[in-house]
Amino acid sequence: KAKRRGRNTFQWYTDELNRKVTERVSLRHALQQAIEQRQFELHYQPQIHHSGRVAGVEALIRWHHPERGNIPPGQFISLAEDTGQIIPISEWVLETACRDAMVLNAQSATPMTMAINVSPMQFQRPGFLDSVKNVLARSGLPPALLELELTEGVLMDSAEHTIQALKALRQLGVHIALDDFGTGFSSLSYLKRLPINKLKVDRSFVRDVATDSRDAAIVEGVVTMADKLGLEVLIEGVETAEQFHHLRMLQCDHFQGYYFARPMALSVLKHFLDSPFAATASAADPIS
Ligand code: C2E
Ligand code: MG
Ligand code: MG
Ligand code: MG
Q1: What angle do CA 153, 132, 165 make, to 5 degrees?
Q2: In sequence order, what are the residues at sequence separation of 6 or more whose Cβ sits closer than 8 angstroms to the Cβ of residue 218?
Q3: Whose atoms come closest to the Cα of 257: which ligand?
């Protein structure tokens, strides 16, 4: 009996494995078409300064597949990273986001930063610094308005080489943010050595911040530490008024989350920034 169950389990396992391999191959082909046929779009999620003003946006890629519909980045970014397809995708993201940042800044009375997620492979490529330089030159975007979001995983390996690469980017005037802070394995000593500008506290610490005093303590501790290290800090994933109520008294520079605004297409964002709602909501309910 046990043997049969073992065989069944094995059968299930190989079927499942085959299904996954087939799915990956098909997704890889679909991605290739997406790159060639430009099926991607960038959505932008506002980042809110504690004064209530929209200080900038984060670019988040969207894939509209003609038959499968919208495929979220969580389902294809890591595959694209494995296959190398992340390189053409990332180049398109950088180019498009910088161009759109110029459009937004032409419309906005205050400077608006553009935050872009940089994948490990993209960052580690020798040509990355030059491609950032070129995109800035082509778009005319002031470097200080470009923020590159890196995850702890990127910064962990080959520390010395990484520090040099970050310094070169900082010399261009570009800003560096550490994304999903608190979920990786990097040691706190990296914060001392890495030339970064901002910590983005991962949303997993925010979810239960109203009910779990340990999460509240962690967020508060990170905000205090960032402040003392001279780093800016942004809290990600604020979804509810209740969460915000618990976070707003912290000396946190920026917030981002569905509670304030969801990621949206450029055309929608333009209206959002123009709308008296965005202006009065922040004026009537200043964050600090
Ligand atoms: P991330 O950089 O940490 O981006 C934040 C993610 O959280 C986004 O998911 C965003 O839509 C979502 N989010 C924002 N506010 C809230 C909230 O209040 N609640 C919840 N539950 N979620 C919120 P998205 O767009 O699905 O992107 C997922 C991840 O995919 C990103 O995480 C980033 O790591 C990666 N990604 C997205 N766009 C790009 C890109 O252009 N290039 C690269 N390399 N990676 C990207
Ligand atoms: Mg990010
Ligand atoms: Mg994040
Ligand atoms: Mg993330």
Answers
A1: 45
A2: 182, 205
A3: 1
In tens, the pLDDT along 27-56 reads 999 999 999 999 999 999 999 999 999 999
Residue linked to tokens 């984060």: 58
Write down how long the chain is: 288
Give per-residue pLDDT as tens, 203-212: 999 999 999 9
**Stated pTM of the model:** 0.92
Taking the C-alpha atoms of residue 8 and residue 1, their distance in angstroms, rounded to an integer, is: 11
Is the CB of 78 within 6 Å of ligand 1?
A: no
Residues 6+ apart with CB under 8 A from 24: 79
**Beta strand pairing call for 54-65 and 40-49:** antiparallel
- Residue nearest atom 20 in ligand 1 by C-alpha distance: 237
Rounded CA gap, 135 and 143, in Å? 10
202 within ligand 1 shell (Cβ under 6 A) = no
Q: How high is the ipTM of this complex? A: 0.98
Partners of 114 in beta bridges: 57, 146
Residue type, 220: E
| Cβ–ligand 1 contact at 100 (below 6 Å) | no
Yes or no: say if 86 and 32 are a contact pair by the CB < 8 Å rule: no
- Pocket lining: 77 vs ligand 1, CB cutoff 6 Å: yes
Distance, CA of 215 to CA of 207 (rounded, Å)? 8
The count of C-alpha atoms lying within 13 angstroms of the C-alpha of 209, restricted to the half-sphere facing its C-beta, is 29
Helix (H, G, I), strand (E, B) or coil at 19: helix
Closest CA to 244 of 232, 254, 229, 233: 254
What whole-number distance in Å separates Cα of residue 10 and Cα of residue 64? 36
Can you tell me which atom of ligand 1 is nearest the CA of 93? 41
